[in-house]
Amino acid sequence: MGPVFQEISMRIADKANVDWRIIYRAAKDLNKELMGRFTIRAFDWDHIFAEVARRFGGVSMDIEVGGVLMRHVRDFKPFDGSLELLRLIRDLGA
Hints:
The protein is an all-alpha fold. It has one domain (2-92). It has 5 helices and no strands. The longest helix has 17 residues, at 20-36. The radius of gyration is 13 Å and the shape is globular. The model has no long low-confidence stretch (mean pLDDT 87).
């Protein structure tokens, strides 16, 4: 996920006027925090990056990690039903 997370971090950093590594680190830290709370949100990278963007000056962005991932991995074939499951989780607000 390195180049995917870097691209998203760079987009947020550009709007927040900070170095992308600061955004990336904040996202990883939020992920660890959510993991410690045993919440499903720890696996929702769209949520994690949107929250980090909000924390950096109220930057509002529509972030879809799956879309960025698909641009980086041309022949990527997810497991049957996995993308639908992730969309369902996102739509449920979990």
